[in-house]
Amino acid sequence: MLSIVIFLFSVPSLVFCQPFSNFQKYDLPSAAVGPFSIAFDSSGRGPFTGISDGRVLRYDPVQNSFFDFAFTSPNRSKAVCDGTDNNDNPTRGAICGRPLGVSFHFRTNQLYVTDAYKGLLVVPPNGRLAENVATGAEGVPFKFPFLLDVDQVTGDVYFTEFSSQFQLSQVQHAIDVRDSTGRLLKYNPNTGETTVLLRGLSGAAGIALSYDRTYLLIAEMTANRVKKLWLSGPNAFTTVDLITVRGRPSNIKKNSLADFWVAVNTWIPGPTVGSMIRVPSAIRISGTGGAILQTVDLSSYYTNTSISEFQPFGLGGYIGALRAASLGRVN
Ligand SMILES: *[C@@H]1O[C@H](CO)[C@@H](O)[C@H](O)[C@H]1NC(C)=O
Ligand SMILES: *[C@@H]1O[C@H](CO)[C@@H](O)[C@H](O)[C@H]1NC(C)=O
């Protein structure tokens, strides 16, 4: 009896170990990097992901290969852009594009994309050139559109602008100076209007709409926290700080249990004096009270590398990273 009790009480500590035994890498084509965010369409095809050279790719598991699906810039050419890294090159980013967030509206099978240089776009169901649907709000052009989530019922698109002062190539500087000009926006596809829901955010990053559509979670990367914005009920349009995390939160994705997975990167001292090592992890949190339900250390797969997203899938998940040359998967 005693051993059963001890076993039961030791279970919570087990969840802090690596619960996935299998890690796979899906190498991107050419020299491109940065599968930043991951989406599946209404019939489960994918993963789809936007990469550093401006393409949105679709992975085909049967052919075990990535294919070009869409692009965000009308004057992008494959000869100039394919295989380039536009994370740090705004000049080439303006020509080639840099899709970051990807999220489907299942009813129309349209893929919405936030591009760091172009704004919010929508890709027609068969792919190719995306249409730009928002380039600014309140008369101010976007500086750094970041991530998004789609309300599957209304079709509204919630998206973040990391900063309205600094662009993607300046993201580290924006964090260092503790920029807090990030915004949360909403695009209404029926009216074509984009409105500002929140301003003054410190590195507005991941965004996820709750399963019951009553609230949004928003990660503030620079402030190490996740905010909750009520959309309905007695507290509608007020925010609370849901949780402060150790490290920098990036994308947020909901799972089928109505919890949320947050990609979080921390730094620990390295082997030599003054050196630092990045430790990427994925934490599963409750949207109700902000409790951490599970922590998965991914540093054995991503050595000294930040991750951007943990997209739950089956019993595991897909992993995005701004600088990685492959899409990861654990299960
Ligand atoms: C084409 O690329 C240039 C950058 O050289 C950019 O300034 C311009 O806006 C692009 N044109 C369109 C239609 O996006
Ligand atoms: C981890 O990466 C950073 C740069 O990305 C580097 O400055 C640092 O030295 C690396 N740490 C180790 C222990 O290699």
TrEMBL record:
Strictosidine synthase conserved region domain: residues covered: 148-233
Coiled coil in keyword set: no
Keyword Nucleus attributed: no
Main subcellular localisation: other
UniProt-listed Pfam families: Str_synth (PF03088)
Signal peptide positions on this chain: 1-17
Domain of life according to the entry: Eukaryota
Subcellular location: Vacuole
GO CC annotation: endomembrane system; vacuole
GO MF entries: hydrolase activity
UniProt keyword terms in alphabetical order: Glycoprotein, Signal, Vacuole
Gene3D superfamilies per the UniProt record, alphabetical: TolB, C-terminal domain
Family named by the database record: Belongs to the strictosidine synthase family.
UniProt protein name: Strictosidine synthase 1
Annotated source species: Morus notabilis
Lineage, uppermost ranks: Eukaryota, Viridiplantae, Streptophyta, Embryophyta, Tracheophyta
